[in-house]
Amino acid sequence: MAGIALRCYVDMLVYEFLQAKKCIGEINKEDAVTAATHNDKKYNDLKQYIKASYALSDEEINDEELRRLTKFTTTDKNNKIPELGNMIAYIIRHPELLNNNTRLVQVLEKFKKSNTHFIDLTACNMFVHNQYFSPSVATLETSVNTLAPVLEEMYTAIKNEKQQL
Prior knowledge:
By secondary structure, the protein is mostly helical. About 70% of the residues lie in helices and about 0% in strands. The chain has helices at about 1-20, 25-55, 65-70, 85-95, 100-110, 120-130, 135-165. The longest helix has about 30 residues, at about 25-55. The protein is elongated.
């Protein structure tokens, strides 16, 4: 349960931090571009397979209908909550959000990457989706202590932003 609580707290705090910094819209735009690129690649792979397997030309394939049927369409993600991994990646790419504090950015990089002695993003996701996966007390404590300065910085930024309103 403590692992799930940590995952939820990190997710909510990172979201609120980025919301206070007015970055959620930008992350959603980046996610939409990534999704569109991914969809286009998958669509083109499928189209090439259909052309090769059934000896069809481009003109014989109704792109609009095929995209609709396969759901390889771009969707507007402006009102979505970004995935935690995407939000953390955004902060890592924009260290100015953490006042260019290299140590804090490195902690987020460590959280984003897999590491057996540190609860990372993958492990946090496992806590939520696999009831048989739970951290040891020592690993949980080490991870919380390592993440604490970043979470504190984010909490302070949120608090300061709300006081200015």
